[in-house]
Amino acid sequence: MVFTDLVNSTAIIKQLCDEDTMARDRTYHETILKPHSQRVETTLEKYRGRKVDTQGDSYFLRFAHPIQAVRWAVEIQTSHSIDPILTPLGPLSVRIGIHIGYPLLEGENLVGYDVHYASRVAAFGNGGQILLSEAMAALVRTASIKGLQLYCHGERDFKGIGNEPIFELLYAGKQPQPLKNEPATIKVAPDTKHNKSQKETQRDTSATEKRLRPLIFRISFLMPFSVVLLLVLVAIPLINPSYISNLCDILPICAENKWEARHYKAENQAKKARELAQEATDYDALKQASDQLEEAINQFESIPPNATIYPTVQKVLPGYKQELTKMKNRLKTDIFKR
Questions:
Q1: Which of residues 185, 218, 245 is at a domain's end?
Q2: Looking at residue 65, what DSSP letter applies?
Q3: Span 194-219, pLDDT tens digits
Q4: How far apart are the first and last CA of the chain?
């Protein structure tokens, strides 16, 4: 989820040299807001983004993948840097906040706690900044995107939520900036969670070694027994192949875990297929969703009746089959025909 807002928009309108408020509003819309909106909306499709809502000059956006949201935000800020929209107060500035969560879908709108969280992240921004929640920062850090860095601003008081850490996304050599209404001095090192001194690293390593020493001793003590057990497990099928046709048949717990894991995988794949179908605007996207859902249904149907999870499968399977039929019918319509 992405929230954007223009910085000092009210002050900009006041500084426009028009005769009355209505004329200033019209000039602001035509020469400042409209060019910015065109940049936002024309780049959304490229990054699989969608407009959820607008309020004044603010945007609420959603993206199919969080990394696409990050790349979109970088492109928007870069475009304003390279080709600025001029105002009476200088180049137009945009603040962007990004959070990843699980909002509720209400018609075409998104609602819930995570939506409020995302808006709180954006509210701390100054012009030109891209701010991230802790969850979003962790995802970006894991993705290791070339050219992007994180700067930790520490914890801030999120209205109605509490103290939460906030991160700034740095790109193209950009330096961290103070947050909204904060002094210009930056004291925190970029992403301090991962910038320890050599002494701190050595100290942490020594402490880790002390904690692991008893575990290493136990592993070395049990290793010979583990080797013997492994040899026995390998030898039994060789002596009598029919004795162990499937290890999971001998261990019911293992078998149940296997079917539960298959159900979990199929459930996730079916949900992703459903989301992809909702966002599909062309034949290929809808066909991909249909294929994914059909594969998930096959996974459901491979779970045997004696599995504990089987009753749950029987409850959800008819609904997914019905959705697959609807998808295939959509593929036959004039809109989606090749």
A1: 245
A2: S
A3: 444 445 545 555 666 666 666 666 66
A4: 33
> 252-279 and 283-301 helices cross at what angle (nearest 10)?
160
Same domain, 268 and 204: no
Q: How many domains does the structure of the chain reveal?
A: 3
In a domain, 337, yes or no: no
Domain around 324: 247-331
Which residue's entry shows tokens 């809109």? 335
d(CA 95, CA 8): 11
Q: Cβ(62)–Cβ(98) under 8 Å?
A: no
Residues 241 and 285 both lie in one domain: no
Indicate yes or no: pTM above 0.85. no
Are 288 and 281 a contacting pair, CB within 8 Å? no
DSSP-derived letter for residue 85 is: P
Residue with structure tokens 């426009």?
Answer: 16
d(CA 178, CA 91): 19
| Structure token digits, residue 64 | 């199919």
The answer to whether residues 81 and 100 belong to one domain is yes
Report if residue 336 sits inside a domain. no
100/133 Cα distance (integer angstroms): 8
d(CA 9, CA 176): 23
* pLDDT above 90 for 121: yes
Beta carbons of 162 and 171 less than 8 angstroms apart: no
Are 91 and 141 found together in one domain?
Answer: yes
